Amino acid sequence: MIADWYKRQGYHFLAISDHNVMQEGTRWFEIKQPVSLKGEVVQRGGGAVLDKYLARFGAEWVERRTREGKQEVRLKPLSEYRSLLEEPGRFLMIPSEVMGPPAEETRPRRTPPHRRYSRDVGTVLAEVTGPQAEYTLRGDEVYVRAKIVSSKPKDNGSVGGEFETAWTQPVVVMGADR
Length: 178
Hints:
- The chain is α+β, with helices and mostly antiparallel strands.
- It has a domain at 26-32 and 41-76.
- 15% of the residues lie in helices and 28% in strands.
- The protein has helices at 2-8, 47-57, 78-85; strands at residues 13-16, 27-30, 32-37, 40-44, 64-67, 70-75, 92-95, 143-144, 147-153, 163-167, 171-172.
- A hairpin with a 2-residue loop joins β3 and β4.
């Protein structure tokens, strides 16, 4: 449902993640009763949300089960739903994951000193215009990452004329002269 929303809003790509978990394998999500938080009803996969999911994709697509008396719905991995949404040149699904400490980790941590590689870190290595880009590694890069600028204007930009923008995670070049 989330990826479908982004596509219908005119986005060109979506790098969807579930925090530090890739969208692979079999996972089930418990359908819980609505909960009221600060006077606002929150749906956790049940009620109207589940009804919309069923209406959009059909009962054959949506897998449900009862386990230990609890209703669950199967979370589809990217490999199963990507073909329903991707359209070459219009909308691309990108596998991704976000790495970092668990949210519940609240103890203060000492930040290690930053390693300074060179004044060239952050240098633009290549610019490409159009829907397809390619970069061939030279071998002397510390890392490479792509900045993707959409043709869609940013709704809440901090300056006029801003466009929707995303960055890929850096690719660390092993064996680079550091």
